[in-house]
Design goal:
Blueprint: H1 6-13, H2 17-32, E1 38-39, H3 51-62, H4 79-93, E2 102-105, H5 107-119, E3 125-129, H6 135-141, E4 146-150, H7 161-167, E5 172-178, H8 190-207, E6 212-216, E7 239-244, E8 257-261, H9 268-281, H10 289-298, H11 305-321, E9 334-335, H12 344-353, E10 356-357, E11 359-360, E12 370-373, H13 378-383, H14 385-394
Parallel strand pairs: 1-10, 3-4, 3-5, 5-6, 6-7
Antiparallel strand pairs: 2-8, 7-8, 9-12, 11-12
């Protein structure tokens, strides 16, 4: 008799494993102390924001008493800032962009929801490759669509091209990519993107409507070993990039993200008008004022990536020395090792008994693995070695 929508009641039964482990960790920390629990459950960047963010905040405070200092603006964000962001993204993405192709929203999640609201009808399908960020399924269901996960190759986490070819049909509305990937750290190559675009372009003609290609890129800035992230915007006219400043500026709680339309997109003015409308009617109204002004000062800056790389190396050393199988991540701040014993939920629960918190791969649509977020101090990573070893021995 709770009066909830049936879909939401079902969501509660299948709540995010990420949050579930985070909350379990809070209980363990209360019982044993923060310094005794090694928490790799949540991708919450711990590095301080770049100094440019603090400078921007000081400027906000200096003008806080002016009229409309925190007032409404265009639903798509400050026009002057969209113009500045378009110039920055033109260089990053390898295309010529104007403010008319850029919309600011409440985080990448807000931008993605606005895009799905503008383009999806009930029954439409969103394709993505497993493992994937679990919230994608919730987002598309908000608008009556369904998420259809496709397999990746288990040893490389590269997309299964044949599976994509077989999956696309009349109900397919979009393919969603995430590179650098959460949870695997894989970065899709130019060749991989070209192959995917070729299939999507051909299948669009077969089904009689354009299939959107969405690239979710909050970790674009964070790659290792000289790896670069190719852009989809020059490759396909129905391409959309979604991203945020949560990770590169360590501003996840400020909720500032954006959507970028391919400049070659047909009737892009209508698409942008629809995005601007859905940005408003979903209740976001406009992106946060303070976040926009912070971004204006810090655009082009980012946290010290070398710290994340040292942590990556430390985690690789700990996992190798304790006998785990894993693919070295090329981007983002996650490892996705194989779960000893293959039962990822049972293994993660065993890890928790040894005060090490991880997230089972089942929470990302790929059982048999587990995710570790290494956006924590290196001392936490190294302190977890004993817990990793004991949990591994329990499944030997």
């Amino acid at each position: 008799m709770h009066g909830l929508a049936k879909s939401v009641a079902g969501f509660l039964d299948n709540a995010s494993w990420i949050r579930r482990m985070f909350e379990a960790g809070a209980k363990l920390k209360a019982e044993f102390g923060n310094d005794k629990v090694q928490d790799f459950s949540l991708g919450n960047p711990d590095l301080p924001a770049p100094k440019e963010v603090a400078e921007g905040l000081a400027d906000v405070l200096a003008h806080a008493q002016e009229p409309f200092a925190f007032g409404y603006m265009s639903n798509a964000g400050f026009p002057w800032l969209r113009e500045k962001l378009a110039a920055h993204l033109s260089e990053e993405q390898g295309v010529s962009l104007t403010m008319d192709e850029v919309l600011l929203s409440c985080g990448a999640a807000g931008a993605l929801n606005a895009f799905l609201r503008a383009t999806f009808d009930p029954g439409d399908e969103l394709l993505c490759f497993a493992p994937y960020f679990v919230e994608y399924g919730f987002y598309v269901s908000n608008f009556g669509g369904t998420l259809r996960p496709l397999p990746s190759h288990p040893d490389t986490f590269e997309p299964d091209i044949e599976a994509l070819q077989n999956a696309i049909g009349p109900k397919t509305k979009a393919l969603l990519l995430n590179s650098p990937n959460n949870p695997t750290g894989v970065v899709y190559s130019q060749q991989t993107l070209t192959e995917l675009v070729t299939i999507v372009r051909r299948k669009s003609e077969e089904v009689g409507h354009p299939i959107w290609l969405i690239s979710d890129e909050p970790y674009r800035f964070l790659t290792y070993d000289g790896v670069t992230v190719p852009s989809i915007l020059p490759l396909y006219p129905y391409a959309v990039v979604i991203s945020s400043f949560s990770k590169n500026l360590s501003l996840p709680g400020e909720r500032l993200g954006y959507a970028v339309l391919a400049p070659s997109m047909p009737d892009k003015a209508t698409v942008m008008a629809a995005l601007t409308l859905t940005n408003r009617i979903l209740g976001y109204v406009n992106p946060p004022v303070i976040g926009q002004k912070l971004m204006a000062h810090a655009l082009g800056s980012h946290v010290d990536k070398s710290i994340y790389d040292r942590r990556r190396q430390a985690m690789a050393e700990v996992l190798t020395s304790t006998g785990y199988e894993f693919l070295m991540p090329k981007g983002a701040f996650y490892f996705f090792p194989k779960a000893p014993g293959k039962d990822d939920v049972a293994f993660v629960n065993t890890l928790a008994k040894h005060l090490v918190l991880a997230v089972p791969g089942s929470g990302f649509g790929m059982p048999g693995y587990f995710r570790l977020a290494f956006c924590v101090d290196e001392s936490v990573i190294r302190a977890a070695k004993d817990g990793f070893a004991k949990a591994r021995e329990a499944f030997a």
